[in-house]
Amino acid sequence: MHVFKKPARWLAAAACGLFAAAALPVGPASAAAAGGAVPGAEAPPVPARYRQQQLDWQPCTGGSLECASMSVPRDWYHPDSGPSLTIAVSRHRAADPAGRRGVLMMAAGGPGASGLPRPARLASYSPKLADAYDIVGFDQRGVGASTRVVCSDQEKVDAIFGGGDLRDRSAAAVRQTFDRARDFVQDCKRNSGGLLPYITTDQAVHDMDLYRELLGVEKVSYYGPSYASFLGAYYATEFPRRVERAVLDSNIDFTGDWQSFLTGQPMSFQRRFEQDFLPWLAKNDATYHQGRTPEEAQASYERLRAALHDRPLDVEGTVITPNHLDAATTDALYNADKFAGLASLLGFLEHPDQAPAQTRKAVAGQLKHLMGADFVADFFAVTCGDTPWNRDSRYWVAQSAEATRTHPLAGARELTYASVCANWPRSKAPRIKVTGEGLPPVLMLNSRKDPATYYEAAVRAHRGLAGSRLVTVEGGDHGQFQNGNACVDAHVEGYLLDGTVPAGDTTCPDAKR
Fold first, then answer.
1. Taking the model in full, what pTM does it have?
2. Domains and CATH numbers, the chain
3. What is the C-alpha to C-alpha distance for residues 195 and 509, in angstroms, rounded to an integer?
């Protein structure tokens, strides 16, 4: 398996995106788009040099997968202009060739995470799917072993997300936020040059369809969690006749835009924190000593945060600020299995001198980088370039102030994210209207209190995707399949193996209770 550098674990999953500018259709899509949003985007025929290439499969470094690379146009709407890009791909062959039923393509979240290793994990988790499918993955353009987008170095990224206190609404702090954002965008322009306009979801789905063609199949089935739900919905919209079955897990509202989706996240992170984590912490007060009620536990959290604001903590060279605490907390909210680790971290930060050296080194390593520089570069390239955003800085100062006041855990970071996309080069990505037209039934999964891909957005996406079935999980974890929930797993495997879908929307219990 190819080795890839993961984004810092505390914030990597939290990412889901932000703004761009008025999106204008390009190439042959222009005429169709003249009247508004269009279901898909027409690109010219694929040049022979791309269609006729062969995938040279070789064992991936350090794993059970096969890896290869393919060449794709930088711009699918003008495939003969600009240099080609490289897309790294991976494959886990069906364990039962005689019973093989096709190709199951999967992608990673973020945007910004690597998809290369994902087929190995899915194959290990579900031997039934591993028997029946060639499970294939890829690093999306801009990511990992594919042609990468490059912005600021890690030191600058650390300063953007970790320095100071993101709740600070002083004029000086706001000005510094915008200054850092402009500097970051200038780094992206300088280091990635002409690549930036082409690191979009729409361009990526054309890469996916070339991958399908080079695999020699007419149709693929698809599994995609988190941002990969957005990617899968766009692929199914632009290439509906190439989709056999699709599972979209923990859904972004792919019928809308990044601005609407991301400005909803502070609410859902705060909800998960207050309704799930704090009651759990209070229930376990005998172990963690943070308060016997949720209110007492929240007060303990705020006292610790205030102490870090007044005196950031130096742990083995990592200076821990309130932003580090909030980032560690948002990361832990993705899965209830992480609650105990967060509770232990709270205790450590209260009494770091009492911890053994090994613990201090581990915490310093975990909190050192809130966002990996490679991850951030692709994340903003996609989310700033995909869909329109308001570019008025005064609007975002007011909007983020309200988010910080009402939902401070994640609301405090809103201005940092918004200011990057408010300065991003204007996008020419076509507007994609997801409708579900021409598709088989799509199976959608979402928990009620998912902090990142919140339920309200998943319901909107479900209503906009004709013929879809929504499986609602009574819990709050992010990512439902491969999460130890037998009810969810039965739905996914039954659908992908036999085409069985629920007669209507249905529910599954919370496997963590």
1. 0.91
2. 55-148+196-261+430-508 (3.40.50.1820)
3. 45
